[in-house]
Amino acid sequence: MRIKVVIADDEPLIRAGIRMILTSDPAIEVAAEAANGREAIEAARAHGADVVLLDIQMPVMDGLTALAELRRSTPAARVIILTTFGERENVLRALEHGGAGFLLKDTAPAELIAAVRAAAAGDAYLSPGATRHVVDQLATGRAAARGEEARRRVEVLSARERDVLALLGEGLSNADAGKRLHMSEATVKTYVSRILAKLECENRVQAALLARDAGL
C-alpha cells in the first residue's frame, strides 16, 4: 500500500515541486493538491489521505484552521505543517494542536520524503536542525509560564525515560538517541511510546516541546 499524500499550498509552483519530489519515491502517491485549507479538508476526506502537507498561510481557510478541522473530521490523516522561520508562533500553535511536525519550505528533498514516511508510520518528524532552532526560539518566550507545569508533568517519568525525552527535545531520531544512550533503536522506540502515554502527548513533537519547557 502506497502512502497517500495531499499537498496543500496556494502557490502552484511549490505544489509542483513537492509533487515532483514525492513521486520520485515509489512508496508515495500524491492523491490530490489543494490551494486552500477548505480544499485540503475535502481532498483528505475524499482520498483517505495518510499524510497532508499543509501550508499555514492560505486564502479561504488558513492552515491552522484546517488543521483543527482535520484533527476532528479526519483524525487518521497525519498533518505536516509547511512553514518559514518567520512564522514561529503559528508553528507552536500548530504543534500544540496535533500537527505531526513541520518542514521549512526550502527543506532538502530527502528530508521531505523522510518526513512523509515518518508521519505515515505514526511518528512526528523532527528536523534536527530546524526543529532545534524553532523550538529554542518558541520555548524562550514562554518558558516562565510553561516551565513549572512541564516540570510537574515529567515527574512521572523514570530517570531513563527522562534521558530519552531530553534527546527528543534535541530532535534526535530513535536511531541517533539509541547511539547516544547505548540502546537499540527498538528499545528507544519502546521508551518513546511509554513516554507519550505517561505524558499524554499525542506525538513526539509535543513531547519535545514539553522537554524544552521542563529544562531537560
TrEMBL record:
The keyword Transcription regulation applies. Residues 150-215 form the HTH luxR-type domain. Keywords: DNA-binding, Phosphoprotein, Transcription, Transcription regulation. Signal peptide: none annotated. Pfam families: GerE (PF00196), Response_reg (PF00072). The keyword DNA-binding applies. The modification 4-aspartylphosphate is found at D55. Residues 4-120 form the Response regulatory domain. This is Response regulator. The lineage of its organism: Bacteria, Bacillati, Actinomycetota, Actinomycetes, Kitasatosporales.
